[in-house]
Design a protein that fits this description.
The protein has three helices and 20 strands. With 424 residues, the chain is mostly beta strands. The protein is elongated and about 80 Å long. InterPro entries: C-JID, LRR-SigEffector_domain, LRR_dom_sf.
């Protein structure tokens, strides 16, 4: 039995009191009930599995009887803006708890060691108890907890956490023990006042560091090869970029394996690194391919964007290349660089830039097409597709030149590469 059909009823207690057989309820969903101020005693709802109270702005507290429901697996309180108190939960099977945009919640809830997903975003919680970090937690989201200024120091026991998000908190320092979180794959630190990135877990795949205005150094992550497919330091104006740019160049020259066949990094500024030998003003650049293109292993681009960027839900950057052969004939093809119809790169995040930014990108696979044009002149013209929704439909795309301040191209050759080698 479910109470989901009561969700639009603008009453306080009547939806539950008219249900006589409360003991058989498995789901209570009173989401979007603007006049719901409190819940009755739920101690008899022994079979309750899910309690969903999303967008209930008048709700001020959840009954203490909730702690006696030992079959409760899921509790969601999203945008219950006036929620002040939340009981201790003793359910050994509780695996999902969400308290989101409840600014009056100031204390970290007592939870089971079996919790898997914990969302406590935009609350007034100040600290995370060490005990929380010793269970089966896989996802911990604390975004927008601005009064939280530090994170527990001892993270060695967090063996199961896969995703940690601390965006827009007041946390100034990431504990050194974070490197021991062996299962961590995603770490989000956007908008935090951190000054340095420590050594991070070796299997970390996604790192978000946009708008970290105090960030000065990130050299400790240079050897995290899995992160290089998408490093984004948008609006990190104090960051020492030179070690990162040098490390990218070295990784390209070393020929070391790249997990995704590419490197991408977003940085503030407009100065194209010196190792980009071919440079152009605006949205195109022309280069002359040498005669040894059979040894071409990869190609890197540096695009310097003017701000502000046009506002689109998705901002896909692509390029056309046009080859002028020795006899004056033209050939060409289209190649999507920073996005494809199956996967979008996060260039649309640059819409929020407050000054010029550049994207450095290196990839392997595209050079298979260029090798046959040894000795010819190639012009790269950069475009973008503005799409008005996340779902692509025929006719929705508008293709325009990207407004760039400048751009650069770097060709990477490997003298040991056999002539018939195809790159992934």
């Amino acid at each position: 039995m479910s109470l989901k059909y009561w969700r639009k009823i603008r009453l306080k207690l009547q939806p539950l009191t008219v249900v006589h057989d409360v003991g058989n309820l498995r789901t209570i969903d009173l989401s979007e009930s603007p006049y719901l101020t409190e819940l009755p005693d739920l101690s008899m709802a022994k079979n309750l599995v899910s309690l969903i109270l999303r967008d209930c702005p008048s709700l001020t507290e959840v009954p203490s009887s909730l702690q006696y429901l030992d079959r409760l697996e899921e509790v969601s309180l999203h945008r219950c803006n006036n929620l002040r108190r939340f009981p201790m939960l003793d359910s050994k099977v509780l695996r999902f708890l969400e308290i989101n945009r409840c600014l009056d919640v100031t204390k970290f809830p007592t939870i089971s060691q079996n919790m898997e997903t914990l969302v406590l975003e935009h609350t007034s919680i100040k600290e995370v108890p060490q005990l929380v970090l010793t269970g089966r937690l896989e996802l911990l989201l604390l975004n927008g907890c601005s009064k939280m200024t530090k994170f527990p120091e001892n993270l060695e026991d967090m063996k199961s956490l896969v995703s940690l998000s601390l965006c827009n908190t007041g946390i100034k320092e990431i504990p050194l023990s974070i490197k021991d979180m062996v299962c961590l794959r995603s770490l989000s630190l956007n908008g935090t006042p951190i000054k340095a990135l420590p050594e991070l877990p070796p299997l970390l795949w996604c790192l978000r560091t946009q708008d970290c205005a105090s960030l000065e150094t990130a050299t400790a992550i240079i050897n995290n090869d899995r992160l290089w497919h998408q490093l984004d330091f948008t609006n990190c104006f104090k960051l020492d970029q030179k070690p990162l740019v040098a490390a990218m160049h070295l990784k390209i020259q070393s020929g070391e394996e790249m997990p995704d066949g590419r490197i991408q990094m977003v940085l503030p500024g407009s100065e194209i690194p010196e190792w980009f030998g071919d440079k152009g003003i605006g949205s195109s650049v022309t280069i002359h391919l040498p005669s040894n293109c059979h040894q071409l292993k990869g190609i890197a681009f540096c695009l310097v964007f003017l701000h502000p960027l046009p506002s689109h839900d998705v901002y896909d950057v692509n390029f056309d290349y046009h080859v002028k052969s020795k006899n004056g004939e033209n050939d060409g093809d289209d190649k999507v660089v920073f996005a494809s119809q199956k996967r979008h790169a996060p260039l649309f995040l640059l819409v929020t830039c407050v000054s010029d930014h550049m994207i450095l990108r290196y990839e392997l696979g595209f050079v298979n097409r260029l090798r046959k044009y040894s000795g010819n002149e190639v012009t790269f013209k950069f475009n973008h597709h503005g799409v008005h929704s996340m779902v692509r439909k025929v006719g929705d795309e508008i293709r325009r030149p990207v407004e760039l301040k400048s751009c650069g191209v770097y060709l990477h050759f490997d003298e040991n590469l056999p002539a018939d080698t195809d790159l992934p």
